[in-house]
Design brief:
This is Histone acetyltransferase. There is one protein chain. The chain is about 35% helix and about 20% strand. The protein has a 4-stranded antiparallel β-sheet with strand order 2-3-1-4. Helix 1 packs across helix 2. It is globular, with a radius of gyration of 17 Å.
């Protein structure tokens, strides 16, 4: 039997410009050494790659507190490096496989509304950033927004 194709992911989004500040705070200067297709501005994907590398190098206990990351482009955003203003970065904290009627399930408060467990995971992540940052970067919680998105299930294989 094949796993469901889609899942609803719940988590926190931040604007791309704020994510760049976060990535720079975790290891200042790293991005200047990363290859960029459009110098002198670093490619936005380098920041995503750096975050994933930072996460992999955490202790197992801390890695559980650092969610995976996904870049989400608006429908209007192009692929040019100058258009990340319409991009946001999503940190999923939970997911549930869904049936074909995704729109109805996205209205389900149990699936797509922030709950206490989500806030605990968010706070653990923010504490981890605070502990591991290397600059005076401070987290602005008003820039974090809870969202629910539909994506391919991590257990779905074609």
């Amino acid at each position: 039997m094949q796993a469901p194709r889609y899942a609803l992911y719940s988590g926190y989004c931040i604007p791309s410009d704020y994510f760049i500040d976060l990535a720079e705070a975790l290891n200042p200067g790293y991005i200047q050494y990363a290859p960029s297709p459009i110098p002198p501005k670093p490619w936005f994907g380098n920041y995503i790659i750096f975050y994933r590398a930072w996460r992999r190098h955490l202790s197992e206990e801390d890695r559980d507190k650092a969610p995976l990351v996904k870049e989400i482009r608006s429908e209007d955003a192009g692929l040019d490096a100058g258009e990340e203003k319409d991009t946001k970065v999503f940190f999923p904290v939970r997911f549930v496989d869904v049936a074909s009627d995704v729109s109805a399930q996205m209205q389900d408060p149990a699936l797509c509304k922030e709950n206490e467990t989500d806030r605990i995971k968010r706070d653990q992540f923010l504490d981890l950033i605070e502990r591991t940052r290397k600059t005076t970067f401070t987290i602005d919680e008003s820039r974090l927004h809870f969202e629910c998105i539909k994506e391919t299930s991590p257990f779905y294989y074609v």
